[in-house]
Write a structure and sequence with these properties.
alpha/beta, Rossmann fold, 3-stranded antiparallel sheet, 39% helix, 26% strand, binds S-adenosylmethionine
């Protein structure tokens, strides 16, 4: 199942991202985001980074502290403007926020050392779209890091607890898919399926542990 990021939902996306970055409301998601940053810090530095789906700009601005330059791309103009305002407030120079679709960007081949898709965003997309994202990220960067939620009943139960902290909206669980009444949600993925998908596309993949219900995938050519 895939979830649509629609223009009509921009305000909901802004509110959800604000809540996700607030440890007083959503400490499970907040700790997960901290674990993502810890992995990034251990894996690379002084690189040219592309952040796919930069949202409010939080992860791009953190990555900018230890990298040469970060380009954050985002589907919605309102979010790009929000992130740019945040950047100005912090006085960070080595970040650019642009409005672009991460399935089909305007960048030339291998423009970046690293691309990043965080917060389990890959789990919002159908397998077909996941393949498109892999292909585009591997076209424009040498290495692609993406966090994902694990399939399985125990992992889904843990992810449900995370969403219960973040969302006021009614949640529905169907096997490994959790959605709310606004149409947002995610579907857990098994590492075996990702391995098969990477193999089919001609990439190598490895996995790094994040927390009890999610992992970081790392794709290379
Ligand atoms: C879960 S959020 C991650 C936000 C951000 N990286 C952070 O750490 O705060 C996913 C973001 O991807 C954006 N997005 C979804 N589909 C997109 C697409 N096709 N192209 C660009 N951005 C997209 C959404 O609008 C949302 O801001």
């Amino acid at each position: 199942m895939s979830f649509k990021y629609k223009n009509s939902n921009v305000q909901n996306i802004i509110e959800a991202l604000q809540r996700a970055n607030n440890p007083k409301i959503a400490n499970i998601k907040y700790n997960l985001l901290a674990s993502e940053q810890k992995i990034f810090r251990q894996q690379f530095e002084n690189k040219k980074i592309l952040v796919a789906g930069s949202g409010l700009g939080q992860d791009s601005l953190k990555l900018a502290r230890f990298n040469e330059h970060v380009t954050g791309i985002e589907k919605f103009k309102e979010l790009v403007e929000y992130a740019q305002k945040f950047q100005r407030q912090l006085g960070v120079a080595n970040v650019s926020f642009l409005q672009q679709d991460f399935m089909s960007t305007s960048f030339t081949d291998l423009s970046f050392d690293i691309s990043v898709l965080n917060m389990g965003t890959i789990c919002n997309f159908s397998m077909n779209d996941q393949k498109k994202i892999f292909t585009e990220m591997m076209r424009i960067s040498k290495t692609f890091y993406f966090s994902f939620y694990l399939a399985g009943h125990y992992h889904t139960e843990q992810r449900l607890q995370m969403y219960q902290q973040e969302w006021d909206h009614i949640l529905t669980v169907k096997e490994f898919c959790i959605s709310n009444d606004l149409g947002f949600g995610s579907t857990g993925i098994s590492p075996e399926d990702l391995k098969q998908m990477s193999y089919d596309l001609g990439y190598s993949i490895c996995f790094l542990p994040l927390n009890e219900f999610s992992m970081m995938g790392c794709l290379t050519s």
